[in-house]
Design goal:
- It is a single chain.
- About 45% of the residues lie in helices and about 15% in strands.
- Strand 6, helix 5 and strand 7 form a beta-alpha-beta unit.
- The protein contains 13 helices and nine strands.
- The N terminus is likely disordered.
- It folds into three domains: about 45 residues; about 220 residues, Rossmann fold, CATH 3.40.50.1820; about 140 residues, no CATH class.
- The chain has a nine-stranded mixed β-sheet with strand order 1-2-3-5-4-6-7-8-9, sandwiched between helices.
- With about 450 residues, it is of the alpha/beta class.
Protein backbone atom coordinates (compact mmCIF):
# COMPACT_ATOMS: atom_id res chain seq x y z
CA UNK A 1 0.00 0.00 0.00
CA UNK A 2 1.41 3.43 -0.98
CA UNK A 3 1.76 6.14 1.64
CA UNK A 4 0.93 9.73 0.55
CA UNK A 5 3.29 11.27 3.07
CA UNK A 6 6.20 9.04 2.03
CA UNK A 7 5.97 9.99 -1.64
CA UNK A 8 5.35 13.69 -1.02
CA UNK A 9 8.07 14.19 1.56
CA UNK A 10 10.84 11.85 0.46
CA UNK A 11 10.30 11.58 -3.28
CA UNK A 12 9.10 15.10 -4.24
CA UNK A 13 10.16 17.08 -1.19
CA UNK A 14 6.70 18.75 -0.97
CA UNK A 15 5.51 20.35 2.25
CA UNK A 16 2.64 18.11 3.40
CA UNK A 17 1.37 20.52 6.07
CA UNK A 18 -0.30 22.67 3.39
CA UNK A 19 -3.91 21.47 2.75
CA UNK A 20 -3.71 22.65 -0.85
CA UNK A 21 -0.65 20.56 -1.25
CA UNK A 22 -2.48 17.53 0.17
CA UNK A 23 -5.32 18.07 -2.29
CA UNK A 24 -2.83 18.34 -5.14
CA UNK A 25 -1.12 15.19 -3.97
CA UNK A 26 -4.38 13.24 -4.09
CA UNK A 27 -4.71 14.28 -7.72
CA UNK A 28 -1.17 13.54 -8.84
CA UNK A 29 -0.50 10.42 -6.72
CA UNK A 30 -2.01 7.97 -9.23
CA UNK A 31 0.14 9.44 -11.99
CA UNK A 32 3.22 9.41 -9.74
CA UNK A 33 2.60 5.80 -8.78
CA UNK A 34 2.24 4.83 -12.44
CA UNK A 35 5.44 6.70 -13.28
CA UNK A 36 7.46 5.01 -10.52
CA UNK A 37 6.20 1.52 -11.33
CA UNK A 38 6.72 1.92 -15.06
CA UNK A 39 10.21 3.36 -14.48
CA UNK A 40 11.11 0.43 -12.24
CA UNK A 41 9.92 -2.06 -14.85
CA UNK A 42 11.84 -0.12 -17.50
CA UNK A 43 15.09 -0.29 -15.50
CA UNK A 44 14.53 -3.98 -14.80
CA UNK A 45 13.83 -4.68 -18.46
CA UNK A 46 16.91 -2.73 -19.46
CA UNK A 47 19.12 -4.75 -17.09
CA UNK A 48 17.55 -8.00 -18.25
CA UNK A 49 18.20 -6.97 -21.83
CA UNK A 50 21.83 -6.23 -21.04
CA UNK A 51 22.30 -9.65 -19.46
CA UNK A 52 20.55 -11.37 -22.37
CA UNK A 53 22.89 -9.47 -24.68
CA UNK A 54 25.87 -10.57 -22.56
CA UNK A 55 24.73 -14.21 -22.71
CA UNK A 56 24.69 -13.99 -26.48
CA UNK A 57 28.05 -12.20 -26.67
CA UNK A 58 29.71 -14.83 -24.50
CA UNK A 59 28.45 -17.76 -26.53
CA UNK A 60 29.63 -16.09 -29.74
CA UNK A 61 33.20 -15.52 -28.58
CA UNK A 62 35.76 -17.62 -30.46
CA UNK A 63 37.22 -20.52 -28.44
CA UNK A 64 34.28 -20.63 -26.02
CA UNK A 65 33.24 -24.24 -25.44
CA UNK A 66 30.47 -23.71 -22.89
CA UNK A 67 28.78 -20.97 -20.87
CA UNK A 68 26.96 -21.82 -17.65
CA UNK A 69 25.07 -19.00 -15.97
CA UNK A 70 25.12 -19.04 -12.18
CA UNK A 71 22.97 -17.19 -9.70
CA UNK A 72 23.98 -13.55 -9.36
CA UNK A 73 25.68 -12.56 -6.12
CA UNK A 74 26.27 -9.03 -4.88
CA UNK A 75 28.01 -6.87 -5.95
CA UNK A 76 27.63 -8.46 -9.40
CA UNK A 77 24.65 -8.62 -11.74
CA UNK A 78 25.53 -12.06 -13.12
CA UNK A 79 28.04 -14.88 -12.66
CA UNK A 80 29.18 -17.39 -15.27
CA UNK A 81 31.33 -20.46 -15.42
CA UNK A 82 32.95 -20.49 -18.87
CA UNK A 83 35.12 -23.09 -20.55
CA UNK A 84 37.39 -22.00 -23.38
CA UNK A 85 39.64 -23.99 -25.67
CA UNK A 86 43.36 -23.26 -25.51
CA UNK A 87 46.29 -24.68 -27.48
CA UNK A 88 48.55 -26.88 -25.38
CA UNK A 89 51.40 -25.28 -27.31
CA UNK A 90 50.60 -21.72 -28.37
CA UNK A 91 53.39 -21.97 -30.93
CA UNK A 92 51.22 -24.54 -32.69
CA UNK A 93 47.70 -23.06 -32.51
CA UNK A 94 46.34 -25.77 -34.81
CA UNK A 95 47.71 -28.56 -32.65
CA UNK A 96 46.36 -30.35 -29.60
CA UNK A 97 44.17 -28.37 -27.20
CA UNK A 98 42.85 -28.41 -23.64
CA UNK A 99 39.84 -26.79 -21.97
CA UNK A 100 40.49 -23.99 -19.49
CA UNK A 101 38.00 -23.09 -16.75
CA UNK A 102 37.27 -19.45 -15.94
CA UNK A 103 34.64 -17.57 -13.94
CA UNK A 104 33.18 -14.27 -15.11
CA UNK A 105 31.33 -11.91 -12.77
CA UNK A 106 29.58 -9.07 -14.60
CA UNK A 107 28.97 -5.57 -13.32
CA UNK A 108 29.04 -3.18 -16.26
CA UNK A 109 30.65 -3.23 -19.71
CA UNK A 110 32.49 0.06 -19.11
CA UNK A 111 33.77 -0.47 -15.56
CA UNK A 112 37.24 -1.95 -14.91
CA UNK A 113 37.95 -5.66 -15.29
CA UNK A 114 39.86 -7.40 -12.51
CA UNK A 115 41.49 -10.56 -13.86
CA UNK A 116 42.65 -12.97 -11.17
CA UNK A 117 45.45 -15.21 -12.41
CA UNK A 118 45.21 -18.22 -10.13
CA UNK A 119 48.39 -20.20 -9.59
CA UNK A 120 46.56 -23.47 -8.96
CA UNK A 121 43.06 -24.86 -9.45
CA UNK A 122 40.02 -22.58 -9.29
CA UNK A 123 37.00 -24.60 -8.26
CA UNK A 124 34.56 -21.79 -7.53
CA UNK A 125 33.62 -18.14 -7.86
CA UNK A 126 34.50 -15.66 -5.12
CA UNK A 127 34.58 -11.88 -4.85
CA UNK A 128 38.02 -10.30 -4.68
CA UNK A 129 38.64 -7.21 -2.60
CA UNK A 130 39.67 -5.28 -5.71
CA UNK A 131 36.44 -6.03 -7.58
CA UNK A 132 34.45 -4.96 -4.54
CA UNK A 133 36.50 -1.79 -3.96
CA UNK A 134 36.27 -0.68 -7.58
CA UNK A 135 32.77 -1.91 -8.45
CA UNK A 136 34.55 -3.81 -11.19
CA UNK A 137 33.90 -6.85 -13.31
CA UNK A 138 35.94 -9.94 -12.48
CA UNK A 139 37.53 -12.89 -14.26
CA UNK A 140 39.01 -15.81 -12.29
CA UNK A 141 41.31 -17.93 -14.46
CA UNK A 142 42.34 -21.44 -13.46
CA UNK A 143 46.01 -22.13 -14.20
CA UNK A 144 46.85 -24.56 -16.96
CA UNK A 145 47.59 -28.15 -15.83
CA UNK A 146 45.55 -27.68 -12.62
CA UNK A 147 42.00 -28.70 -11.72
CA UNK A 148 39.74 -29.02 -14.76
CA UNK A 149 42.24 -27.13 -16.94
CA UNK A 150 44.61 -30.01 -17.54
CA UNK A 151 45.19 -31.78 -20.87
CA UNK A 152 44.48 -35.49 -21.10
CA UNK A 153 48.22 -36.20 -21.26
CA UNK A 154 50.40 -34.14 -18.94
CA UNK A 155 53.15 -33.25 -21.39
CA UNK A 156 55.26 -31.26 -18.93
CA UNK A 157 57.33 -29.40 -21.50
CA UNK A 158 54.36 -27.11 -22.16
CA UNK A 159 53.88 -26.13 -18.53
CA UNK A 160 55.89 -22.93 -18.72
CA UNK A 161 55.40 -19.35 -17.59
CA UNK A 162 55.28 -18.29 -21.24
CA UNK A 163 52.58 -20.78 -22.21
CA UNK A 164 50.50 -19.74 -19.17
CA UNK A 165 50.95 -16.08 -20.11
CA UNK A 166 49.81 -16.97 -23.63
CA UNK A 167 46.65 -18.44 -22.08
CA UNK A 168 45.99 -15.20 -20.23
CA UNK A 169 46.79 -13.08 -23.27
CA UNK A 170 44.24 -15.00 -25.31
CA UNK A 171 41.60 -14.51 -22.60
CA UNK A 172 42.29 -10.76 -22.49
CA UNK A 173 41.95 -10.54 -26.27
CA UNK A 174 38.62 -12.37 -26.12
CA UNK A 175 37.01 -10.36 -23.34
CA UNK A 176 38.25 -6.99 -24.51
CA UNK A 177 35.77 -7.49 -27.33
CA UNK A 178 33.06 -7.10 -24.66
CA UNK A 179 34.56 -5.04 -21.84
CA UNK A 180 35.91 -1.59 -22.70
CA UNK A 181 37.13 -0.36 -19.31
CA UNK A 182 40.60 -0.51 -17.77
CA UNK A 183 42.13 -3.91 -16.94
CA UNK A 184 43.84 -4.98 -13.73
CA UNK A 185 45.51 -8.35 -13.28
CA UNK A 186 46.10 -9.68 -9.80
CA UNK A 187 46.85 -12.88 -7.94
CA UNK A 188 47.96 -14.22 -4.58
CA UNK A 189 51.20 -16.12 -3.87
CA UNK A 190 51.83 -18.35 -6.91
CA UNK A 191 48.90 -16.54 -8.49
CA UNK A 192 50.79 -13.30 -7.85
CA UNK A 193 53.84 -14.75 -9.59
CA UNK A 194 51.57 -15.64 -12.50
CA UNK A 195 50.36 -12.02 -12.54
CA UNK A 196 53.95 -10.80 -12.89
CA UNK A 197 54.84 -13.28 -15.64
CA UNK A 198 51.74 -12.32 -17.61
CA UNK A 199 52.67 -8.64 -17.33
CA UNK A 200 56.31 -9.38 -18.21
CA UNK A 201 55.46 -11.23 -21.41
CA UNK A 202 52.49 -9.00 -22.35
CA UNK A 203 53.06 -5.58 -20.73
CA UNK A 204 50.25 -3.92 -22.70
CA UNK A 205 47.53 -6.47 -21.90
CA UNK A 206 46.49 -4.76 -18.69
CA UNK A 207 46.76 -1.25 -17.28
CA UNK A 208 47.55 -2.12 -13.64
CA UNK A 209 48.97 -5.13 -11.81
CA UNK A 210 48.60 -5.97 -8.11
CA UNK A 211 50.48 -9.15 -7.13
CA UNK A 212 49.99 -10.15 -3.50
CA UNK A 213 52.74 -11.94 -1.52
CA UNK A 214 54.46 -12.98 -4.77
CA UNK A 215 58.05 -14.23 -4.39
CA UNK A 216 60.67 -13.79 -7.09
CA UNK A 217 63.17 -16.59 -6.47
CA UNK A 218 66.57 -16.71 -8.13
CA UNK A 219 67.52 -20.33 -7.37
CA UNK A 220 65.88 -23.71 -6.90
CA UNK A 221 66.78 -23.35 -3.22
CA UNK A 222 67.02 -19.59 -2.70
CA UNK A 223 69.34 -18.94 0.28
CA UNK A 224 67.57 -15.68 1.14
CA UNK A 225 64.96 -17.85 2.85
CA UNK A 226 67.51 -19.06 5.41
CA UNK A 227 68.64 -15.51 6.14
CA UNK A 228 65.04 -14.49 6.76
CA UNK A 229 64.32 -17.41 9.09
CA UNK A 230 67.43 -16.55 11.11
CA UNK A 231 66.34 -12.94 11.64
CA UNK A 232 62.52 -12.74 11.64
CA UNK A 233 60.72 -12.02 14.90
CA UNK A 234 62.78 -12.00 18.06
CA UNK A 235 65.57 -14.32 19.18
CA UNK A 236 63.47 -15.89 21.94
CA UNK A 237 60.76 -16.99 19.50
CA UNK A 238 63.28 -18.33 16.98
CA UNK A 239 64.93 -20.33 19.77
CA UNK A 240 61.56 -21.73 20.83
CA UNK A 241 60.87 -22.84 17.24
CA UNK A 242 64.24 -24.59 16.96
CA UNK A 243 63.88 -26.34 20.32
CA UNK A 244 60.41 -27.60 19.34
CA UNK A 245 61.79 -29.00 16.07
CA UNK A 246 64.58 -30.69 17.98
CA UNK A 247 62.16 -32.28 20.47
CA UNK A 248 59.96 -33.51 17.62
CA UNK A 249 62.94 -35.41 16.23
CA UNK A 250 64.19 -36.62 19.60
CA UNK A 251 60.74 -38.00 20.48
CA UNK A 252 60.10 -39.33 16.98
CA UNK A 253 59.52 -42.93 18.06
CA UNK A 254 56.88 -41.86 20.60
CA UNK A 255 55.03 -39.66 18.12
CA UNK A 256 55.09 -41.85 14.99
CA UNK A 257 52.45 -44.36 16.22
CA UNK A 258 50.05 -41.46 16.88
CA UNK A 259 50.84 -40.02 13.45
CA UNK A 260 50.08 -43.41 11.93
CA UNK A 261 46.54 -43.45 13.28
CA UNK A 262 45.94 -39.81 12.43
CA UNK A 263 46.98 -40.38 8.82
CA UNK A 264 44.96 -43.59 8.65
CA UNK A 265 41.87 -41.63 9.68
CA UNK A 266 42.61 -39.00 7.02
CA UNK A 267 43.27 -41.61 4.33
CA UNK A 268 46.81 -40.33 3.84
CA UNK A 269 49.39 -42.71 2.34
CA UNK A 270 52.99 -41.80 1.63
CA UNK A 271 55.09 -43.03 -1.28
CA UNK A 272 58.16 -41.58 0.46
CA UNK A 273 57.26 -43.41 3.68
CA UNK A 274 55.46 -42.11 6.74
CA UNK A 275 58.69 -41.66 8.71
CA UNK A 276 60.26 -39.56 5.94
CA UNK A 277 57.09 -37.49 5.63
CA UNK A 278 57.22 -36.84 9.37
CA UNK A 279 60.78 -35.52 9.18
CA UNK A 280 59.93 -33.28 6.21
CA UNK A 281 57.05 -31.81 8.19
CA UNK A 282 59.40 -31.10 11.11
CA UNK A 283 61.89 -29.37 8.80
CA UNK A 284 59.08 -27.39 7.14
CA UNK A 285 57.80 -26.18 10.50
CA UNK A 286 59.87 -22.97 10.74
CA UNK A 287 58.95 -21.86 7.20
CA UNK A 288 55.24 -22.57 7.72
CA UNK A 289 55.23 -21.03 11.21
CA UNK A 290 56.14 -17.59 9.88
CA UNK A 291 54.31 -17.90 6.57
CA UNK A 292 50.96 -18.39 8.29
CA UNK A 293 51.57 -16.02 11.18
CA UNK A 294 51.57 -18.54 14.01
CA UNK A 295 51.84 -17.42 17.62
CA UNK A 296 55.01 -18.11 19.59
CA UNK A 297 52.96 -18.54 22.76
CA UNK A 298 51.25 -21.56 21.20
CA UNK A 299 54.45 -23.56 20.68
CA UNK A 300 54.38 -26.56 23.05
CA UNK A 301 57.08 -26.41 25.73
CA UNK A 302 59.47 -29.10 26.94
CA UNK A 303 56.82 -30.63 29.23
CA UNK A 304 54.20 -30.97 26.48
CA UNK A 305 52.59 -34.34 25.85
CA UNK A 306 53.00 -36.29 22.63
CA UNK A 307 49.40 -35.42 21.72
CA UNK A 308 50.03 -31.71 22.19
CA UNK A 309 53.20 -31.80 20.11
CA UNK A 310 51.61 -33.71 17.25
CA UNK A 311 48.48 -31.56 17.27
CA UNK A 312 50.54 -28.38 17.01
CA UNK A 313 52.68 -29.78 14.19
CA UNK A 314 49.51 -30.70 12.30
CA UNK A 315 48.00 -27.26 12.90
CA UNK A 316 51.03 -25.46 11.50
CA UNK A 317 52.26 -27.87 8.79
CA UNK A 318 50.23 -31.04 8.48
CA UNK A 319 51.15 -34.06 6.37
CA UNK A 320 48.85 -33.77 3.36
CA UNK A 321 51.51 -32.12 1.18
CA UNK A 322 53.66 -35.26 1.43
CA UNK A 323 50.84 -37.75 0.91
CA UNK A 324 50.29 -39.50 -2.42
CA UNK A 325 47.24 -37.31 -3.10
CA UNK A 326 49.09 -34.15 -2.13
CA UNK A 327 52.12 -34.96 -4.27
CA UNK A 328 49.84 -35.69 -7.24
CA UNK A 329 47.88 -32.46 -6.77
CA UNK A 330 50.99 -30.28 -6.42
CA UNK A 331 53.02 -32.05 -9.13
CA UNK A 332 52.46 -29.20 -11.64
CA UNK A 333 53.56 -26.65 -9.05
CA UNK A 334 56.72 -28.53 -8.14
CA UNK A 335 57.49 -29.00 -11.83
CA UNK A 336 57.31 -25.24 -12.32
CA UNK A 337 59.26 -24.55 -9.13
CA UNK A 338 62.11 -26.80 -10.21
CA UNK A 339 62.27 -25.54 -13.80
CA UNK A 340 61.46 -21.81 -13.67
CA UNK A 341 59.91 -20.44 -10.47
CA UNK A 342 62.57 -21.47 -7.99
CA UNK A 343 61.81 -22.49 -4.41
CA UNK A 344 63.58 -23.12 -1.12
CA UNK A 345 65.43 -25.88 0.69
CA UNK A 346 66.05 -26.73 4.33
CA UNK A 347 68.69 -25.41 6.70
CA UNK A 348 69.41 -28.42 8.91
CA UNK A 349 71.97 -26.70 11.14
CA UNK A 350 71.68 -28.23 14.60
CA UNK A 351 69.21 -30.87 13.42
CA UNK A 352 71.07 -32.95 10.84
CA UNK A 353 72.41 -35.45 13.37
CA UNK A 354 68.83 -36.19 14.46
CA UNK A 355 67.55 -37.03 10.96
CA UNK A 356 67.17 -40.75 10.21
CA UNK A 357 65.08 -40.76 7.02
CA UNK A 358 65.25 -37.36 5.30
CA UNK A 359 69.02 -37.22 5.62
CA UNK A 360 69.49 -35.15 2.44
CA UNK A 361 66.24 -33.17 2.41
CA UNK A 362 65.21 -31.47 -0.81
CA UNK A 363 61.85 -30.45 -2.28
CA UNK A 364 62.98 -31.64 -5.70
CA UNK A 365 61.81 -35.16 -4.80
CA UNK A 366 58.21 -33.99 -5.12
CA UNK A 367 58.58 -32.81 -8.72
CA UNK A 368 57.79 -35.03 -11.73
CA UNK A 369 60.92 -36.81 -12.90
CA UNK A 370 60.69 -35.52 -16.47
CA UNK A 371 61.52 -31.93 -15.62
CA UNK A 372 63.70 -29.65 -17.69
CA UNK A 373 66.86 -28.06 -16.22
CA UNK A 374 66.21 -25.04 -14.01
CA UNK A 375 66.28 -21.79 -15.98
CA UNK A 376 68.11 -19.48 -13.60
CA UNK A 377 68.00 -16.62 -16.11
CA UNK A 378 64.21 -16.16 -16.29
CA UNK A 379 63.59 -14.46 -12.96
CA UNK A 380 66.71 -12.35 -13.40
CA UNK A 381 65.21 -11.07 -16.66
CA UNK A 382 61.86 -10.50 -14.96
CA UNK A 383 63.62 -8.62 -12.16
CA UNK A 384 65.46 -6.39 -14.64
CA UNK A 385 62.18 -5.64 -16.44
CA UNK A 386 60.46 -4.83 -13.13
CA UNK A 387 63.21 -2.39 -12.16
CA UNK A 388 63.37 -0.76 -15.58
CA UNK A 389 59.84 -0.92 -16.99
CA UNK A 390 57.51 -2.27 -14.30
CA UNK A 391 55.10 0.65 -14.16
CA UNK A 392 51.66 0.82 -12.55
CA UNK A 393 52.32 -2.15 -10.26
CA UNK A 394 51.52 -2.41 -6.54
CA UNK A 395 53.39 -5.16 -4.65
CA UNK A 396 51.84 -6.23 -1.36
CA UNK A 397 53.73 -8.32 1.24
CA UNK A 398 53.41 -9.29 4.87
CA UNK A 399 56.37 -8.49 7.11
CA UNK A 400 56.22 -11.89 8.86
CA UNK A 401 55.53 -13.96 5.75
CA UNK A 402 58.51 -16.16 4.89
CA UNK A 403 57.93 -15.42 1.20
CA UNK A 404 58.77 -11.77 1.84
CA UNK A 405 62.37 -13.01 1.97
CA UNK A 406 62.36 -13.12 -1.83
CA UNK A 407 60.07 -10.15 -2.38
CA UNK A 408 60.28 -7.99 -5.49
CA UNK A 409 62.30 -4.79 -5.08
CA UNK A 410 60.94 -2.20 -7.53
CA UNK A 411 63.08 0.69 -8.69
CA UNK A 412 62.38 4.35 -8.01
CA UNK A 413 62.67 4.81 -11.77
CA UNK A 414 59.26 3.18 -12.19
CA UNK A 415 55.78 4.37 -11.33
CA UNK A 416 55.10 1.57 -8.87
CA UNK A 417 55.06 0.90 -5.14
CA UNK A 418 55.79 -1.87 -2.67
CA UNK A 419 54.00 -2.07 0.66
CA UNK A 420 55.28 -4.43 3.36
CA UNK A 421 52.56 -4.72 5.99
CA UNK A 422 53.88 -4.74 9.53
CA UNK A 423 52.86 -7.77 11.59
CA UNK A 424 51.03 -9.44 8.69
CA UNK A 425 51.57 -12.90 7.26
CA UNK A 426 50.78 -14.65 3.98
CA UNK A 427 47.02 -14.85 4.38
CA UNK A 428 46.26 -11.37 5.75
CA UNK A 429 48.54 -9.14 3.66
CA UNK A 430 45.64 -7.47 1.86
CA UNK A 431 44.64 -3.90 1.06
CA UNK A 432 41.63 -4.17 3.36
CA UNK A 433 43.98 -4.85 6.29
CA UNK A 434 46.33 -1.95 5.59
CA UNK A 435 46.77 1.11 7.76
CA UNK A 436 44.69 4.12 6.76
CA UNK A 437 47.81 5.81 5.42
CA UNK A 438 48.76 2.89 3.16
CA UNK A 439 45.18 2.43 1.98
CA UNK A 440 45.15 6.07 0.99
CA UNK A 441 48.38 5.65 -0.97
CA UNK A 442 47.03 2.59 -2.78
CA UNK A 443 43.69 4.20 -3.62
CA UNK A 444 45.38 7.40 -4.81
CA UNK A 445 47.59 5.41 -7.18
CA UNK A 446 44.66 3.33 -8.44
CA UNK A 447 42.52 6.40 -9.06
CA UNK A 448 45.35 8.13 -10.89
CA UNK A 449 46.14 5.12 -13.08
CA UNK A 450 42.50 4.36 -13.80
CA UNK A 451 41.96 7.93 -14.97
CA UNK A 452 45.09 8.25 -17.10
Amino acid sequence: MFNDKFYSKFVLGINITNPLTNQAMRLILPFLTYFLISTSFSVYAQKAGVLESLDEKLTQLPSVVSVEKWEAEKPFQANYKIVIEQPIDHNKPDGATFNQRIYLSHNDFATPMVMITEGYAASNHYTSELAEMLDANQLIVEHRYFGESAPEEMDWQYLTTRQAADDHHHIVELFKQIYTGKWINTGISKGGQTTLYHRYYYPEDVDISIPYVAPLNFEIEDPRIYKFLNSVGDAACRKKIFEFQRRLLERREEILPFMKWYCFGKGQNFAIGRETAYEYAVLEYSFAFWQWGSNCENIPGKNATVDEMLEHLIDVVGFSLYSEKGVAYYAPFFYQAMTELGYYGFDTTGLRHLLKYATEPTNTIFAPKLGLPFDASLNQKVNQWIRKSGNRIIYVYGELDTWSATAVSPSRKTDSMRIIMKGKAHHDARISNMTAQNKEKVMAALNRWLNE
